[in-house]
Each structure stands twice: as structure tokens, then as C-alpha cells.
């Protein structure tokens, strides 16, 4: 299972005021709030934890084909993992060039992920990648959504659809795709 | 004469109009806003950034003077479900 989430830090600053009364409390557990407020760069930490929760939410939603919900407090960050109802997702968060990017996966899940530059179509980049690793042409690849809007790659004449996830925010986009071992 | 709570007798249309005003600053898909209906999904149809859903919830709390707990908040992703949450919180005031 895979999920990802990207935050454009510059845009986040204009879209959200994390110091707004009630804002942190509605999104983060007490432990997370304490961690955020006791970190040198609290604002950056907000977006790191937020992107981990969002990435884990997508992986968890896919795993159980869940209807969308807005329940970020259920997703509890602990170091590089996020727990939800006893299920654990492993996260990897990077900060570079003004973006925070997190991916979340179940244990032992192989994957490929890429951040794409502004002006480049993330769907085209994803298709390019698939056409290379699967030796098919771009025309044979379609991106579909199954129940609850969960996205998959469908390759012509192949039975198994491949899980993928896209994320966009401001100037940044990224994809993650599950790989077979 | 005692004063009545401000919003306890709002019709669904009035609630919808209030909610529309609240979500408007966060909407990134104006066509979705123009076509607003009960089943409109905040993220899918209006392209509201998921981190701004919390601002919608906080604005709703301020506007209607209600408290939205986590259980109610998790449902607030469509117009219909948000109105149901607001109605139920107003009724229990």
C-alpha cells in the first residue's frame, strides 16, 4: 500500500495560519502539538507531520477502500511511522527547494517515487516511467479510479492494475507507484 | 423578553447560504462553487486544499457559535454532511 503528499511551503504560508486558535488542536494529537511547539522550526514541523498524516491517510484509505473522511487526529505520528487503529505505515519525509514531501507505505512495500518540476505533467511523467519499466507504449497505459476514487494504472492486456498516488500543491507535484518485488 | 439564540430557526436554504459564504475563500474551483449542491464534495468538486478543511470547521464554529468535536469534524467533507452536523449541533445547544 502506498500514499504520498506534497506541501509547497510558500503557498502553505499564504493558505494557512497554523497559529490560528484551534487550528493545531483540531489536526494534531497532544503529543504532536507538544513536539511541534518544542521544535526550533515549528512551522516546518507542522507541514512535515501534516504531510505524513496525509500520505498515511491515502495508504490506509486504499488498503481498506474507505470513504473519504477528515480525521487527521486519528493518524498518529511517531518518529518515522504513522499509526491508525493499530495499523502502522512507514513514512519518509524530505524537505528540499521549498517543498515538504512525504510518502507512506506498508511494511516491505517496494515503490518508486518522483517529484516533478513545475510545468511538467506529473501524469505524463508517471506514464513515461511505466512505459520504461513495463516495456509498453504510453498509449497502452491508462490511469483509472476505482471505488472511492482510489487511483490505479491499467495496462492494456494485463490483468493486475498497479496502485499509484499523485499529489499537487502550488509549484510541486509528485507520484508514487507500487512495484512488485 | 428573553432573546432567542441567533440561528436556531434557520431554514436549510439559509444554512446553505451561510455555509457557501464560509467556504468561498478556500474554493479553488469556481465552477464547482457556482454549481454548489447538497452532494458537492469540498475536496473533489471545489478543490479546497485539505489543510483548509480545518479553517472551514473553525469558521463554522465561529459563525454558528457551536463546538465541532472530532467525531463530527470527520464527516465535514460534503455540503450535505456539513449541514447535518451544523443542524445537529444547533439543535443540542
TrEMBL record, chain A:
Gene3D superfamilies: 4'-phosphopantetheinyl transferase domain (3.90.470.20). Keywords: Transferase. This is 4'-phosphopantetheinyl transferase superfamily protein. The keyword Metal-binding does not apply. Residues 2-66 form the 4'-phosphopantetheinyl transferase domain. InterPro entries: 4-PPantetheinyl_Trfase_dom, 4-PPantetheinyl_Trfase_dom_sf. The keyword Transferase applies. SUPFAM superfamilies: 4'-phosphopantetheinyl transferase. GO terms for molecular function: holo-[acyl-carrier-protein] synthase activity; magnesium ion binding. It comes from the Bacteria. Coiled coil: none annotated. It comes from Aquimarina spongiae.
UniProtKB/TrEMBL annotation, chain B:
It holds the Pfam family PP-binding. GO terms for cellular component: cytoplasm. Residues 13-90 form the Carrier domain. GO terms for molecular function: acyl carrier activity. 4'-phosphopantetheine is transferred from CoA to a specific serine of apo-ACP by AcpS. This modification is essential for activity because fatty acids are bound in thioester linkage to the sulfhydryl of the prosthetic group. Pathway: Lipid metabolism; fatty acid biosynthesis. Keywords: Cytoplasm, Fatty acid biosynthesis, Fatty acid metabolism, Lipid biosynthesis, Lipid metabolism, Phosphopantetheine, Phosphoprotein. Belongs to the acyl carrier protein (ACP) family. Gene3D superfamilies: ACP-like (1.10.1200.10). The keyword Repeat does not apply. This is Acyl carrier protein. Its main location: cytoplasm. Carrier of the growing fatty acid chain in fatty acid biosynthesis. It is found in: Cytoplasm.
Amino acid at each position: 500500500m502506498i500514499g504520498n503528499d506534497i506541501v509547497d511551503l510558500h503557498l502553505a504560508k499564504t493558505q494557512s495560519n497554523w497559529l490560528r486558535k484551534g487550528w493545531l488542536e483540531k489536526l494534531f494529537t497532544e503529543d504532536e502539538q507538544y513536539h511541534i511547539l518544542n521544535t526550533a522550526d515549528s512551522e516546518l514541523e507542522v507541514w512535515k507531520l501534516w504531510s505524513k498524516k496525509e500520505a498515511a491517510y491515502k495508504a490506509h484509505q486504499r488498503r481498506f477502500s474507505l470513504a473519504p473522511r477528515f480525521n487527521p487526529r486519528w493518524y498518529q505520528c511517531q518518529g518515522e511511522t504513522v499509526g491508525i487503529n493499530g495499523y502502522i505505515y512507514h513514512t519518509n519525509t524530505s524537505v528540499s527547494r521549498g517543498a515538504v514531501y512525504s510518502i507512506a507505505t506498508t511494511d516491505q512495500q517496494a515503490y518508486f517515487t518522483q517529484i516533478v518540476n513545475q510545468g511538467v505533467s506529473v501524469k505524463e511523467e508517471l506514464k513515461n516511467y511505466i512505459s520504461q519499466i513495463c516495456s509498453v507504449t504510453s498509449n497502452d497505459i491508462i490511469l483509472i479510479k476505482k471505488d472511492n476514487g482510489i487511483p490505479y494504472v491499467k495496462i492494456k492486456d494485463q490483468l493486475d492494475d498497479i496502485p499509484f498516488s499523485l499529489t499537487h500543491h502550488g509549484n510541486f507535484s509528485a507520484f508514487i507507484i507500487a512495484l512488485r518485488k | 423578553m428573553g432573546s432567542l439564540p441567533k440561528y436556531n430557526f434557520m431554514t436549510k436554504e439559509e444554512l446553505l447560504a451561510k455555509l457557501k459564504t464560509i467556504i468561498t475563500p478556500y474554493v479553488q474551483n469556481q465552477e464547482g462553487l457556482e454549481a454548489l449542491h447538497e452532494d458537492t464534495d469540498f475536496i473533489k468538486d471545489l478543490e479546497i486544499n485539505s489543510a483548509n478543511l480545518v479553517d472551514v470547521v473553525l469558521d463554522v464554529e465561529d459563525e454558528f457559535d457551536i463546538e465541532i468535536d472530532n467525531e463530527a469534524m470527520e464527516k465535514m467533507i460534503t455540503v450535505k454532511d456539513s449541514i447535518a452536523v451544523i443542524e445537529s449541533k444547533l439543535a443540542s445547544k
